[in-house]
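Data card: per-record layout.
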Amino acid sequence: MASGTGTPDDPWVLATPSGGSEYTMHLDPEPDPPLLVCQVGKTRLTYLARALDDLHAFLVERGDWVFLGASDEQRPAVEGTVEAWARAATNPVGGWYGQKKGLRGRFGVYVPPVLVHQGRAEIEIENRKARIRAL
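The structure for this 135-residue chain is written out next.
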């Protein structure tokens, strides 16, 4: 179960959708634009904070389950997944939500659990693949 308030002093403690790994994430309002800071072991990833609202709006618009997908920046994302949406030129920011070159991928693994923690989405595993839908 996730915990924390999402601040730098009290980050969300989350688990990947498969439950295999724990990580933390918090909002950093200082940069312009604000960022989500994800700490996975010694690796620090950053995503635009607006990704939470944008992803929720995308899921509401889709109105059904969407597979998460998960791939590093260097590998292509599977079409129709959350990962592909988070890189697409047609999303609200016109491309990558990930901000650190070389570490812009894995959006589909680390960002969706925040929406679940906020009560705005649910994730389920189907045939070893995770999918999400808006609540």
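Known properties of this structure: The two ends are 18 Å apart (CA to CA). The mean pLDDT is 95.

See the next section for split statistics.
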